[in-house]
C-alpha cells in the first residue's frame, strides 16, 4: 500500500490530504481483494456458513492488523529520520548561523528569487523562525505536522476493514445458491469504484487503472476458487 508522504515539491495541505485519501482507497482495495480471495476460496471447498464466516473474519482481522503494524513501522521510521534531520539542522543553526543563512539564500535563489530578494527573504525568515524556515525550504517538512504513526496505523486498519467487510457480508448473508454470484458481482463493482477513485486521486486516467484493478481482483478470486474446489473435491 502506498503510504502518505510529505509532499516536498508542492508542499501543501491539499497534497497531503489527497495522499491520505488515496492511501485510504488503496487500503480498502486491499481489504476487498484479499478477503474476497479468502472467502471465495473457502466457498469452493465448503457450503458451511460458519466456516465462511470464520475464514472471512480471520482474514479481515489478520489483514487489517498486519496493514496497521506495517504502517506504524514505516511511519515511525520516517518520523525518526525527520526528527533526526531537524536535530542536525538545529545544531547547524547554532554552530554556524552565517553558513546557514547563505544556504537558505541559495535555496531561495534556486526557487527563482533574485539574489537580493533571496537574501532579504532569508534574513526575515531566519529572524522569525530559523528552524522552521530550514525545515520547510531545505528538508521539505513542517515541524509542527510530523506524521503521527498511530494515526497512520489506525487509518490503515480502518480502511482495510471497511473494504474487507464487503466480501465478508456478501458471502455470508445470501442463501447458499446466491453466495458466489452476489460476492463476485459486488466485489468487481467495488473494484471499479476503488480503481477509478485511486486513479483520479493520483491524477491518472482511470480507464486502465480500473481495468487492471478488476482483472487483478477477478484473478485472485478465480485462483482461490480453483484451489478451494480442488481441495473440496479431494475431501480435504
Ligand atoms: Zn540548513
From TrEMBL:
The chain crosses the membrane at residues 20-43, 152-173, 180-199, 211-234. One of its GO terms (cellular component) is endomembrane system. The keyword rRNA processing does not apply. Its main location: membrane. It holds the Pfam family VIT1. It is found in: Endomembrane system. It is a multi-pass membrane protein. It comes from the Bacteria. Keywords: Membrane, Transmembrane, Transmembrane helix. One of its GO terms (molecular function) is manganese ion transmembrane transporter activity. GO terms for biological process: intracellular manganese ion homeostasis. The keyword Transmembrane applies. CDD domains: Nodulin-21_like_1. This is VIT family protein.
